[in-house]
Structures are given as C-alpha cells and as structure tokens.
Amino acid sequence: MLFQLSQQNFPDSIHSSVIPEEHLGIKLSGHTADVTIASCCTLIHQTTEERGYSLWVNTFFIHKPLILHVIPDDPIYTLYYSVENTAKFLSFDKVTVLAPEEFCILELAPCYHYGIFSAGTYRSLHLTVDDQHRSILKNQDYVAALLREHYFDIAF
User: Fold this and answer.
1) What is the mean pLDDT of residues 70-90?
2) Which of 65, 96, 113, 145 is geometrically suited to a Cys-Cys bond with 91, CB 3.0 to 4.6 A?
3) Which domain holds residue 60?
C-alpha cells in the first residue's frame, strides 16, 4: 500500500527507486523500491507481485507529525500488520488504530484515505489484493503463513 506525501505541501520532495545508503540494511532482494525523501520524512516502500496479490514492506522515518494519503485507482483490500509503532488510518470518517503486532483489514475505495503518523520509525507489512482475490484475506492462517514465508526475519 503506497502512502504518499501531498505534492502541494511538499513540492521539493525527492522520488527515487534507490534506497538511500544509510538505509541499505533494510533492502529486500526481489522487491521494487519506491522512496520519497523530504525534510519531514523518508518513506521507503518495497513491494513484490505474486499470484494475484502484492506484498509490501513499508519503512517510514518520520521527523514530525505527518498525514500521508493513499489513493487507489480501483477498489483494493489490504491486510495491514504493524511491526513497529502505532499509526491511525482515516477512511470515510472512520479512524482505525493500526497497533503493533495486530492484523487489520482495510477496504479502500478509489478516493483519498489518510494515514496519521507521529514522529518516529514505522515498519509494516501489507498483503494487498484486488476485488477478484479478496477471499485470500479471509484465511488469516494462510495470510500469516504467507507473510512468514516472505518476511520471517522482519516481523516474526
């Protein structure tokens, strides 16, 4: 799930597919990186596509309270697992607390959704599927096994 900075509020942010040298220790092989660097934060998204779903590892270094947005083009469903730190997610006037070591399923229609972050380091895992594959998320044992298979050293 790609959290983004507002271009209007952060026009000088830098976008890259290269993880900064000081964070190379978190680089995952076989993943595509999407990096945003601004004075307020460094956002590192790493993703890989598999059999009808995408797996994401997000690592955010946030220097001051910040609101990020997610804008899916089509309806998506994400199982969110916080590894480090608690964030809040605002969607259709409903706030969901994303606490560490808890699974949360988020349904995202094509519109703006917001992540609310305090200063700190955030790490999370996501399994994101489209409407056709959303039944995958109903089996939490399967999803947990899938996340362990890919990211055992990160979260479990």
Assistant:
1) 91
2) 113
3) 14-155
Q: What share of the chain is helix, strand, coil (3-state, %, to 5)?
A: 20, 50, 30
- Residue range 124-139, pLDDT digits in tens: 998 898 888 888 888 8
Do the domain assignments include residue 8?
no
CATH code of the domain covering residue 128: 2.60.120.10
Burial class (CB in 10 A: 0-12, 13-18, 19+), 90: middle
DSSP class of residue 18?
S
| Counted domains in the chain | 1
Residue 5: inside a domain, yes or no?
Answer: no
- Give yes or no for a contact between 76 and 134, defined as CB atoms under 8 angstroms apart: no
Q: What is the pLDDT of residue 152?
A: 61
pTM of the model: 0.89
Structure tokens at 155: 């979260």
